[in-house]
Every structure is written in structure tokens, then in C-alpha cells.
Amino acid sequence: MKRASGFTGFTVMWAGQMLSSVGTRMTNFAIGIRVYEDTHSALNVTLLSFVAFGATVVFSPIAGALIDRWNRRVTIIASDVGAGVVTLLLLLVYLFGDPQLWQLYAVNFLTGAFLAFQVPAYGATITLMIEKGGYTRANAMMTMLRAAPYVVAPALAAPLVSAIGISSVLAVDVLSCVLAVAAVFAVTLPATPARDHTTAAASGFRREIGTAFSYIARRPPLVGLLGIMLSISFLSAFGWVLFPPLVLARTDDSASALGIVQAIGAIGGTGAGIWLAMLKPTDKKIFRMLVAILVLAIPGRIFFGFDGIWIWSIALFLGWGALPFIDGYNQSIWQEKTPPHLQGRIFAAVQMTENIASPLAYLSAGVLADQVFEPAMRSDGWLAPVFGPVTGTGPGSGIAVLFIVSGMAAVVLAVIGFLTPTIRNAEALLPDGGGETAPAAQTSDTARAT
């Protein structure tokens, strides 16, 4: 049987990852609710994400060097299998005992380590499988992996947890990982870009890890673009991790309210991804990306300062809808403007840098919410006279203030991007393919992995 290739092959792999993402989001939803109900601590919830992103940061440099060395199919499958095994271990813990909080942190750490390989491997594979004009479309589809599962995951996870328990959700997650691996086996991957073995042997593994950072540092437009994404990653993660505690705190721990808001927001993200995939290729990616940051900032963050399930739903719908344009156009620029034989390392370096912001945002958000802003927004708190007329006082009001502050900071970030020539004109300043000639291709993946 002939394996699918090109954009069709990518779509097969994407479908497998979509199923896997649904399983993962179901697990995240169920465990997040469980931790908050047990502890009523925003900090404990944020620490789940903190350890996962921390692991991704730690392992990204190693992953980048290995992705450029290894067969891409093997790399992707290994990351999927690893994540599935970790989930299976957690399932066994739930079946034969009651897991402790530290065990949930350990599972998230291991999952984050495998994710360090998966994301840059897929990004580099898109460059090989698809023509330049299709990068944005493919990246739009990849952004849907973040949004679309949230449409169905809460609706699937909530009744399963109520009727059977968290173990049923974990079993679904393990099955979804198996299907994702099967999808990768079903496609033909093109030749892996060759490495300069003479240079690699002379430099050694450690220096290979630093190659990507040196490459980026010599190109001011890439430095500026990475700085924008580092900042937006912090601000986006800062708001995202506080969204569940905000809704739960203001709805008497209503999981159904959280599921409704999350599902509506996911519809916005999915719809935006579909819209982006349908748009024609453009040379104004930076402009559209910065406009999307403004959308994320104002309705997507500041609106969370107001109270009401429908206001939160609109805010998440528009904020999530901005993300495919931010991430999709950003990723397309990196794919177009960097050499394919370095993309494993470059994308891992970008992932590491952006993900450094996320655990810092998660940790600081939890501490600021629990220790500073929530006490300050009680009826007798020192911030209540300032923000109380907008956010109200009591549980969740301090988190609402943090949303307003993060939204204002994102507005400033977008303005900086518009006013900085090396960022605003990055597409014109950078040559396609990084202006480098890659070594001759290695033996094709088809020959080695079919």
C-alpha cells in the first residue's frame, strides 16, 4: 500500500496528532479540576504547567541537536510513544492507588521533556513536506491542535470522570497516542537535510547545540522577532493559566461554567485557524501578527477584568482567535527565512526561549494571585478602591486585575513592534532559506523508514 506524501501526508499526521491532542486535553482538564478542588490553590494548578514547560526548556537544546541528527520519523514516533508510556504509568497509579500531588508534577515533567522533541520536529518536517506557499496553511492547521480539542475535551472528560473516574480519561489518552503513532507510520517523509559531518565532527555535540543561538544572534530581525514572541509567550501564559481559577472562583467551583467558557474560546481558536488556512499567502505576516497581538491584548485579556460568563466567553473567543495568526505567521517566517538543515536546532532554540517565559509566567501568576492581588482585592484591600468599581471585590477579583494589567502590557508590546524597523520589516530584510546553501540531502527517509 502506497503511503501518503506531501500535503496529504502532512494532513494524515495532523489528524493523528489531533486525536492525541484531544486525549491530552481531556487529561489536563480532569486533573486540573481535581487539583483545584482538592487544594483551592491557583499556585498548585499553575505548578502543573510550570514543571511541564520547565522540562521542555531544559531538554529543548538537546532535542534540537538530535532532531537534525536523527531520522525525523523516528524522532516524532519516539516523542509520541514516550508521552503515551508516561500517561499509561499514571493510569496504573490511579487504578491501584490514589496519586499524590508530587506524582502529578513528575508526570507533567516527563511529558514536557518528550514535547521538547515533538514540536520542533514537526516544524522542521513541514518545511520538507510542503511548498513554501503552503507553510502558513500547515501552521494554521497546527494551531488548531491547541484550540479544537478544547471544544470536545471538556464535554467528553466531564461525564467520563463523573461516571467512571479519571482512569477512564487516561485510558482514552493512551489510545489516542497509539493512533498518533499509527498515523506517522502511514505517511512517506521526504529526505532529511544532510548535515555537514566534517563541521559537526570538529565542533562536537555541545557546540552544535549553540549553533542555533549563534545563527539567530547574527540576524537582528530574528532577534527582534524572538523578543516579541518571548514577551507574548509570557503575557499569554500569564493569563491562560489564571483563567480556570478565575472562572472557578467566581462561579462557586462550577466545572460546567469553566467547560462552557473554554469550549466557546476553543471554537474561536479553531475558527481562526480555519480562516487563516483559507487565506492566500502574504508578505505582510509581521503586520498581521502585530494586529493579532492587539486583539489578544484588548478583548482577549482586558475583558476578563469584567464579571460574567458571557463576557469571559467573548474574551476567550477573541483572544484564542488571535493566537493562530500570531503563531502561524511567526512560524512561517522562521520556516521561510532559515536553512532546513539547521531547523531542528533553530526551532528547538526558539521553543526553549519562548518556553522559558511560560514557567516564569505560571509561577509568578500563581504567587501574585494567591499572595498579592487576591488579598488586595478583598473589600478592605488596598487595591479595592482602584479596581473594585470594574472588577468587583471578593474571590477572583485579584485575578481579574492581573488580566487587565497583562492586557495593557501586550498593547505596549504591539506598539513596540510597529515602531521598530528591524521587526516591522523583518520579511524584507531576511533572505529566503537563510541565504545559505544546504549540503546535499542524506538518504531519504523513505528509503530508511518505509
TrEMBL record:
Residues 440-450 have a biased composition (Polar residues). It comes from the Bacteria. InterPro entries: MFS, MFS_trans_sf. It is found in: Cell membrane. Its main location: membrane. Residues 429-450 are annotated as: Disordered. The chain crosses the membrane at residues 42-67, 74-96, 102-126, 147-164, 170-189, 222-243, 255-279, 286-303, 309-326, 346-369, 399-419. Keywords: Cell membrane, Membrane, Transmembrane, Transmembrane helix, Transport. It is a multi-pass membrane protein. PANTHER family: MACROLIDE-EFFLUX PROTEIN (PTHR43266), MAJOR FACILITATOR SUPERFAMILY (MFS) PROFILE DOMAIN-CONTAINING PROTEIN (PTHR43266:SF2). This is MFS transporter. It comes from Streptomyces vastus. The lineage of its organism: Bacteria, Bacillati, Actinomycetota, Actinomycetes, Kitasatosporales.
